[in-house]
Design brief:
By secondary structure, the chain is an alpha+beta fold. Helices cover 36% and strands 27% of the residues. Helix 4 packs across helix 5, helix 7 packs antiparallel against helix 8 and helix 9 packs across helix 10. Bound molecules: flavin-adenine dinucleotide.
Length: 346
């Protein structure tokens, strides 16, 4: 079955992400030759959480994950896709997808293409969401994401989440001795302080762990990667007959650290069902209903849970302090809560 992948940018490129991949993906990645072994990604098995005042707790990560930059990982995955026969059209932005008489018509750059199935994997927010007139695109979103790569002394096996007023910062290692530092902040704060350095100085550095990291690191980018206007509001896993995967179907809050795992898992669910539809000659309605059902069963609860945890346990003195107390004094519950945010290996 011929497959075309459209990507508006050209690999490799950086993107805002904590770059921690949950180990729930390992069986799938290894089975399909998609585990990026050659980069020797560090394995992460411990979690540190700190409150705004710096009080912190450590917990084991029962499932754990590995660290790899999107620069390396996405490029590697695109190469593996190409090697498997996928036509990878880079620097090729899809501007329109129309469904007509049981076929899709896709417009990308100057080309028009027809397809039986279209999988929407265009991330948190794309011009395609506007073209498709999806409801969430009309709502403003309060979040800004900021990412750096740094050289610092951070243990390979540790992922840390440090709270600050109005957001939280994650830090963990990726390949080649580099460390990812990435944070989510309310856009009003950035507006208030005007610049990223002023925001960091006045807000983030109130947490002594964050202040210490900045004081003892070399920053490797000239300027940080920044994204804004992304939403954790519910979306639709099937829209206008497109099967949506990853953030196009719904974005989990970054503190759960498994948006990538969910995107990969959803892509597997969609692929398995498309293959089954073709083999069994099932109607399109069957495909759409089956995918919607499978997606909701696997992910809807996790997305709700992620929103809940972000709202009640992160980003303010009171909530971050509560989270630390949970981690220090109710460890089994805290471990269960971490488990809840992750899925089962697939
Ligand atoms: C601050 C922050 C930290 C995070 N940290 C983590 C983490 O540590 N671990 C984790 O697992 N997840 C994390 N996530 C979530 C993770 O980044 C996403 O869930 C994941 O990237 C989703 O993958 P995706 O393929 O759906 O979308 P994306 O990775 O965004 O990919 C979508 C692609 O589509 C392309 N595209 C968009 N529109 C078009 C178009 N019209 N035509 C052609 N191409 C198009 C884009 O260029 C992009 O390459 C984090 C998110 C944020 C905001």
């Amino acid at each position: 079955m011929p497959v075309v992948l459209f990507e508006k940018k050209t690999y490799p490129f950086h993107r805002v992400c904590g770059e921690y991949v949950s180990n729930e993906t390992l069986p799938f990645l290894k089975h399909n030759g998609l585990f990026p072994e050659k980069f020797e990604p560090p394995s992460v098995s411990r979690f540190q959480l700190s409150a705004i005042n710096g009080k912190s707790a450590f917990l084991p990560l029962d499932l754990g994950g590995f660290g790899i930059s999107r620069y390396a990982f996405d490029h590697f995955l695109s190469q593996q896709a190409r090697a498997a026969g996928v036509q990878v059209a880079e620097n090729c932005e899809v501007s329109r997808v129309q469904f007509n008489q049981d076929r899709f018509v896709i417009q990308a750059n100057d080309h028009t293409l027809e397809a039986d199935v279209v999988v929407g994997a265009f991330g948190k927010r794309s011009r395609l969401d506007v073209q498709l007139n999806r409801g969430f695109i009309m709502k403003r979103s309060p979040y800004v994401g900021i990412k750096y790569h740094i050289k610092t002394n951070h243990p390979d096996d540790l992922i840390a989440l440090h709270n600050f007023n109005g957001g939280y910062l994650g830090i963990s290692n990726v390949e080649a001795g580099k460390t990812n530092l990435c944070y989510l902040v309310h856009r009003n704060l950035l507006k208030h302080y005007h610049t990223i350095p002023a925001l960091e100085e006045n807000v983030l550095f109130k947490n002594p762990h964050i202040k210490n990291i900045y004081a003892n690191s070399t920053f490797l980018f000239e300027k940080p990667e920044v994204i804004n206007e992304f939403s954790f509001a519910p979306k639709e896993p099937v829209y206008n007959h497109l099967l949506m995967v990853g953030d196009s179907a719904g974005m989990i809050t970054p503190l759960c650290g498994n948006g990538m795992a969910m995107a990969i898992h959803a892509a597997k669910l969609a692929t398995d069902l498309v293959l089954q539809q073709v083999t069994e000659k099932q109607p399109r309605k069957w495909l759409e209903k089956s995918y919607q059902y499978a997606w909701k069963k696997k992910f809807a609860g996790r997305l709700r849970y992620g929103r809940w945890v972000q709202h009640y346990l992160f980003g303010s003195h009171l909530s971050s302090d509560l989270a630390i107390r949970l981690a220090l004094y109710l460890r089994p519950i805290a471990r269960l809560m971490i488990k809840q945010s992750h899925g089962e290996p697939f």
